[in-house]
Amino acid sequence: MNDPWLTVPAEQPQGTGTLAVCFAPTGAHGSTFAGWRGRVPEDITLAFVAPPGRGTRVDEEPVTDMAVYADAAAAGIRELLDGRRLVLVGVSLGALLAYETCRRLLDAGVPVTRLCAVAGQCPGDFDGRGEDVTVEDARAFVTGTGLTDPELLADPEFEEVLLPPVIADLQLAARYDGRRRAVPQVDLRAVWASDDPHVPEVTVRRWAEWTRGECTLMSVEGGHFAHQENPAAVVAACLDGLPGTRPSRRSVLGAGATAVASTVLGLGAVASAAPAARAAGTTATASYDGDPTDPVALAVAMIRQNTSNPGDGAVTLPLARMLQGIFGAAGVATEIVPTPKDGNVHFFARIPGRGPVTKKPLVLLGHSDVVPAIGDRWETDPFAGEIKDGKLYGRGSLDMKGVNAAFVAALLRHVREGASFDRDIVFWSDCDEEQGPYGVRWFLTEHPGRVTAGAVITEGGWVLNQRDGSTPMIASLTCNDKRSLLLRLETASYATHTSKPFSGQAVIRLGEVLEQLGQWRAHIRPNALSRTYFAELAEATTDRHFARALREMLDARTDRQRDRAGESVVRLSETPELHNAMLRTTLAFTAAQSGYYPSIVPGTATAEFRAAFLPGAEDPGRTVAELRSLIGNRATLSVVGNPGESEQQALDRLRGYLATPDSDHDTDVFRAWQSAVRRTHPGVRATACQFEAVTSAVPFREQNVPVYGMYPFTVTRDMLKRMHGTDEHIGVEPLRQGTETVYQLLAGLRSKH
Q1: Which pTM was predicted?
Q2: Which of 94, 555, 600, 629 is placed for a possible disulfide with 23 were both Cys, Cβ 3.0 to 4.6 Å?
Q3: What are the backbone angles phi and psi of residue 409, rounded to the nearest 5°?
Q4: What are the pLDDT digits (tens) for 334-350?
C-alpha cells in the first residue's frame, strides 16, 4: 500500500469480502485498535487511517481541516478497496471523520455498506464557531478523558509527542460545521457505552437525524474508550451481521462479547447495557437432541437461539435450521424462505390433511424473533434457558418461544401417534414481528397465495388464576388486537451556559408535562369483545367484591358511573395492568432525550410515547386533540407516522386498522379450543377476548380470515409485567399443561377417515 493515509496490519488474514476502515479518536492513531485484531468476523480486513502528526507520521504537520482530512482518507480507501464491501468505523472524533469520508465516497459513487459511529457526537453538534485551541485546552482534554496516564503526561518529552495531534484534532472539531451538510443514504450503527461520561446515550441517539438510511442504536459495556476496554463487544456491535461474513471464534468466545444488542432509533426505545446478554448470533447451534414432544426442552433450545431483533429484523436462520431438523426427523415437510436481510428467514412445516380435504389450512403462527435483552440487569443469562424454582427464564420464554414450543410439541405428538387431520396444519415461525420490514405482511405481499389459511392461531389471550394464585379461573382466546399511535412531545426554551440556569428550562418543562400526561386517564370504554370477556369473568371469579364491580361497570349508563366502577375493577384485579389495558385507551412512555454537552443547558427536550386504542372505542383524533388541550402551549405534541405521512394520513390509517372486524368466534376452531379448555381445565370458563397488544397476524384478519390469540398456560401478574422486560419467565408445569390444551385443540380437528 503506497498511500500513507491507510495502513493494513500484515499479520492479519487479508479478507476478500469486506474492508473495515477504522478512524481513531482524538489524538490517537491505528494502535488504538490493536485489541481488534483476531476478533473481527472472518473475511474482513481491518485498515487503520494514519493521518499526519502521529504514529509513523509523527514528524509531519497535523491536519486541522475536516475537508482535507476526509478527502485524503477517501482517496486512500478508493485505492485500497479493490471491489470489496466497505465499512467505516469511527470512535469519538473519528465518528465525524468517518462520516465526512463516507459522504465523499458516496458522492464519488463508491458504495458504503455500513457506517459505525462509536461514542461520538453527531455532525449537528458542531457549528464551526469554536475558539482556537491552546496547549492548556489539550492538557485538560487529555486529563479529563483519561486518554493517557497523568504521570506520562507530566513527562515533557511525552507531552511534546502527545499534545500536537490532540491540539490539531480539537482544532479540527472546533472549525467543523456539520449542520448544513447533505445527509447521506447509508446504513448507520451508532454505538454508546454504558459508563461513558462524555458521550451519553441521549447524545448518540441524535445520529438518527444524520442518515437517510436505517440508523440502529447499539449498547456495549464500558467507558468512553470501550473500543479498547471491551473490544469484542464493540467489534460485534459494528461488524456482526454483514452479508457473507461469519463471526470469528475469538469474537464469539472472547471476554467482553456481551451486552451487544440494539434497537432502531426513532422508535422511542432506549437501550442500556446488560452484561448478561450475548452477542446476537453467537448461539447458532442448529441441532436438537431432545424429545420433540417435550415442550420444556424445546423452549429451552429455542431460547438458547439468540434471535434478538435490533429493530431491523433478527438473525433467525439458525433457529429455522434447528426446527427443520426437528420436523424433518418426524417426516414432516419443511421450507425456509429467506428475506432480503441476510439470515432473516421464515420457517414453515406442513402436515397435509387426509381424506377429502375441503377446509382451508389451520396456521399455527409463532414469531421467532424476540426483543433485545438490554436494560436492567438480569438475574440469569437471558439466553441460557435456565430453570429455577419451577420457572423457565429467558428472553422470549413468554413472548413467544414458550407458545411456539407448545405448538411444536403438541403437533409432533399427533404425528408420532400417526394421527391425520381434516385440513392441512401449517406451523409458521415468522420473523420481524417485533420490528422490521419483512414480517407476515411482507411475506403475504411478496408471496401471494403461498400460504392460504382458513384460520390462524397465534399469541394472544391469557389463562388467569383465582385470587389464591393457583386455581385456574378463566381462559381467553383473543379475536382482535389493540393498535397504537406513536406521539412525540417537545418543549423549547433557549440554550445557555450551565452557570446561568433559569426557571423555564426545557428539560424541567418536559418533566412537568410528562407528569401531567402520566396522570391522564381515558374514560373506561370496553368494546364488544371486552364486554364479553368481563361478563364471563364476573361469573368465573370467586371474589364477590370483584364480581360486583364488574357487573356495575357493565351495567353503567353514564361515563361517570362506568369510570367509577371500572376503576374499582382495575383496583380489585389480580392483573390490574392487563385489565386496565382491556378497558380504555392507554399511554405508555418509551423515551425521553435532551442535552448534548455537559456545560450547556439544552434549548429543547423531547419525549415519545404510544397511545394504544381499543377497536370500537375512542377515536384517535379526538384523543390527540384532548391531549393537546391538556398540555396547552407548554409543549408541542406531534403524531409520528410513516415516512412521508401527514398527521391526518397517519390517523386515517389507524382508524382503518381499528375498523377491522373482530374474528368470528362461531367456528370449528374456536369450538375446538373451548372443548380443549374444558378437558384440561375442568370448570374454567373459556371466552372470546380483546387482546391488549398487536400481533403479526393482523394482515390475515384484514382479509377476513379468523385469527385467534392464545397463551395456553396460566400466568401471574409478575410474569405479565416481565413480558419484554427483565427476568422474563414462565412456569414449567403450566407450560406442560398449556401444551396439553394445544394437543386437545388439534385433536378436535383430527380426520374422521
Answers
A1: 0.65
A2: 94
A3: -65, -45
A4: 999 999 999 999 999 99
